[in-house]
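Lab notebook, entry 213. We have the chain sequence and a SMILES string for zinc ion, and the next step in the workflow is to get a structural model of the bound complex before anyone spends time on docking refinements. Request logged below.

Task: model protein plus zinc ion, output structure tokens.
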Amino acid sequence: MLKIIENSEVFWTQKPLEASQIKKINNYPIFLPKQTHSDIVEFVSEYKDSSIYADALITSSTSFFIGVKTADCVPVLIIGDSMVGVVHAGWRGLVQSIVFKTLEKMDELGCNIKHIFVGAHICKNCYEVGQDVVDNLPGYYREERYLKTAISGKYFLDLFSMVCHQIEIFNPLIKIEHIGKYTCCNNDLFYSYRKEKTQKRNLWAIRLINKEF
Ligand SMILES: [Zn+2]
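Result returned:
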């Protein structure tokens, strides 16, 4: 699927397509990092197919897409006036503030961030986590807005609220647009590791069409 948002184009796969089948989008190559649930944010100025370790990429180039692969983690696509960014945000990356750090780096590089598109991820009603995850959350992410405790003693974590929190503390005026679909509850459209234990991944990518000055 291809969607124009401001001065960028956002692309994502839907079933049966999956990330490994997509080599180019409209003849543009896709720069994909090696994802490790880290807080590493890299600015990339030119396309390379031997990739780098990162969970967020930023570019000001219009000649390639930057992308991430997900299957329940949150894909965050950032549109600025002179750059675009993409983040793979799972609970480990969010605990390390990866969304906030990406926005901060774009800002330091002189980019004015305007709009954020959030793709399909596991929803807050399906994402059950264990005590091991809860033990790793800072106190502010154990609040009710992010973490719900069911009567059964189970915990449910809201990754999207964690993403929104990091955007809002950076700048509450940035427009946040959610795709409105989830890997778990729209499993006919998206791959979900939790639901299917699949090795297949959804691809989320973004390209800057032109710089606005
Ligand atoms: Zn769900």
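Notes for the group: The domain at 2-123+174-208 is CATH 3.60.140.10 (CNF1/YfiH-like putative cysteine hydrolases). Worth checking against the assay data. The chain has one domain: 2-123+174-208.
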